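Summary of Year 1 activities. Much of the first year was spent building the evaluation harness for sequence design. The harness presents a backbone, in tokenized form, and records the residue chosen at every position. We chose the following record to illustrate the format because it has been used consistently in internal testing since the harness was completed.
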């Protein structure tokens, strides 16, 4: 499971012109579910993200977590994170999990963020054509892969 975190001061997602999710300070999380991922991958990744200390304290040091700032998350499913661009010019998405596997893991990930104390967890619409808007704070953008995390 892969995630791209963007520290934001504001983010929203729209489907067919209607806002379906919006947050103020927190993380915009683009989440890609790969073949072979399971609830363990989702748990490990959500636990890591919830505890990351990348919000600035009074000394302008990255030292605060989502809980410390009462931050929110906006989680967007994004199978294109699983792209393989190593051959040719058209990415291959064969590594992405099938929707019937990916959607429950996406939902589990969101629930796990709540279990980790994130009070506001907003979502996009799984599988929809979405338009995402954000104000990246910093900018701070972090790439995390669950397979690289200690269990």
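For this record, the design step produced the sequence shown next.
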């Amino acid at each position: 499971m892969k995630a791209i975190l963007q520290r934001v001061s504001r983010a929203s997602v729209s489907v067919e012109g209607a806002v379906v999710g919006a947050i103020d300070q927190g993380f915009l999380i683009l989440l890609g579910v790969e073949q072979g991922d399971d609830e363990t991958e989702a748990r490990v990744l959500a636990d890591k993200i919830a505890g990351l200390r990348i919000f600035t304290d009074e000394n302008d040091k990255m030292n605060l977590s989502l809980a410390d700032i009462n931050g929110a998350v906006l989680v967007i499913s994004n199978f294109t994170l699983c792209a393989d661009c190593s051959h040719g010019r058209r990415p291959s998405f064969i590594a992405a999990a099938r929707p019937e596997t990916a959607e429950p893991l996406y939902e589990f990930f969101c629930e796990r963020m709540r279990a980790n104390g994130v009070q506001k967890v907003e979502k996009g619409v799984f599988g929809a054509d979405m338009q995402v808007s954000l104000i990246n704070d910093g900018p701070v953008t972090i790439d995390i892969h669950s397979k690289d995390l200690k269990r």
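DSSP finds three helices and eight strands in the chain. Quantitative recovery figures across the full test set are reported in Table 2.
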